[in-house]
């Protein structure tokens, strides 16, 4: 989470740019304007629905909560919107065009046909780059290797390429009269999700940026993997979604004059900015999966002084065509879709996430391994959390009733159970522009549910074991991430000394909640950043220095706080 100084600087920057963007728009309009989508994950629809839960509307939600059967129709509607909007000049797609594209090239053929029809209908160009679902080292006839991918999508960037970086699927192409797209293949065809970055690819981007400036153009970078963190602890909890050595790479690319990066892969809508030691700023805009809640893409206007961006949503599809493809859809399901596809997609996501998570977090998701001294405790705590989240929140046999036995008050809300709260926070992360403060009702409610475990499942665990486990978790985290303490008042125990059990749960819960509950002060969906014609290096360098000092002081304060609390707990045990 950004420090207070950084938030103030960001707010002042946005406010000052609003005036600039309006005047720029009024005077001469944008130099270019376009749509950005990512992670289309096209699937051929199933012959019938497969059910994973008992919910009669959303029970066919899979563990990924991706709207696979509806994907083709969602892509069609997205392209229709882009065709009908006169302000959109072209479309960028940042990878994962087909869900099973690695092993089934015919999915790519189907996507390419949709894009070809769009270009013929609208006269607008599409530029694509592969994602981790798109290319592999082939072993079967239906596999998609790099050559086949570039052949299928030859009309969508590769035919307009100024340069290509073989044996990768990277290329450059001019956009309008002032800008140049650097489309980077960030993948490793032999890997599942992790990136395939290397020194050559990093330097190639720098070389192309320098060449763009030499030709009088501003470089815009598009790749599948994230350049910057899009949630706290991303490089621990989702390390395969962000490129390796990302801070060093961001430093070099920012200093090469790249201000704007579009990525995908994380399936979230998030905008993150990095400022180099030389005061150069680079912004990474991760765009959510088009065929997953919130069914979102970006609209971007490029002005000399300002880059204006906004989120746009696909909120309808041809449900008659869907019913014709898969007769299993009920009238009730189609009616819910017709009320608003985005709201349907959110409930679909929440159902799929609950189905997946109630079977337990995987070790890699928690950042733990069997060798950790706290492994058994964390696993027991997570399993107990599943039990609590499955309880109804209110009424007979509820979490509220159980909590009152131990003096833990569960606040009133519209949620039906703990999973409803937890999945709301997850869906907020995907949608972007999260607004769930750590002291707010929803996070407080979830933390009160967590605190029930202290009085039930963990009540018999030895205090010293809890203390040692918590200390080990903190020691493993501090120094590698900006570890944020969940204040103990969320447990309803005031600001007094905490118990070993509370200390342990604070250590476990803090990074997990921070991952979904908070944003970093930069609006993810609708906002303004500096255009390529703005140079604020001196101001940025000063802000960097102030931020570094504040982070150092906050870090020292945090470590001292943990040491003092740990010593106090140990003294109580002894």
Question: Can you tell me about this structure?
Answer:
The protein has 574 residues and is an alpha/beta fold. It has helices spanning 4-27, 71-84, 105-122, 146-152, 199-214, 234-237, 246-255, 319-325, 331-339, 341-357, 363-366, 375-390, 399-405, 418-431, 441-455, 463-477, 500-517, 537-573; strands at residues 32-37, 90-93, 125-128, 163-165, 170-175, 179-183, 218-222, 260-263, 270-275, 281-286, 296-302, 306-313, 527-530. The strands form two sheets. Strands 4-5-6-7-8-10-9 form a seven-stranded mixed beta sheet. The chain has a six-stranded mixed beta sheet with strand order 3-2-1-11-12-13. Strand 6, helix 5 and strand 7 form a beta-alpha-beta unit. The radius of gyration is 25 Å and the shape is globular. The protein starts with a helix and ends with a helix.
SSE diagram, text form:
Layout: H1 4-27, E1 32-37, H2 71-84, E2 90-93, H3 105-122, E3 125-128, H4 146-152, E4 163-165, E5 170-175, E6 179-183, H5 199-214, E7 218-222, H6 234-237, H7 246-255, E8 260-263, E9 270-275, E10 281-286, E11 296-302, E12 306-313, H8 319-325, H9 331-339, H10 341-357, H11 363-366, H12 375-390, H13 399-405, H14 418-431, H15 441-455, H16 463-477, H17 500-517, E13 527-530, H18 537-573
Helix pairs in contact: 2-3, 9-10, 10-14, 12-15, 14-15, 15-17, 16-17, 16-18
Biggest beta-sheet profile: 7 strands, mixed
Question: N-to-C terminal Cα separation, in Å?
Answer: 36 Å
Strand portion, in percent? 5-15%
Task: Using the alpha-carbon principal axes, give the shape.
Answer: globular
Global mean pLDDT: 81
Radius of gyration: 25 Å
Give unreliable regions as ranges: 1-27, 233-237, 477-498
Approximately how much helix is present in the residues? Answer: 40-55%
Major β-sheet strand ordering: 4-5-6-7-8-10-9
- Count of separate DSSP helical elements: 18
Number of strands: 13
Helix and strand composition category: alpha/beta
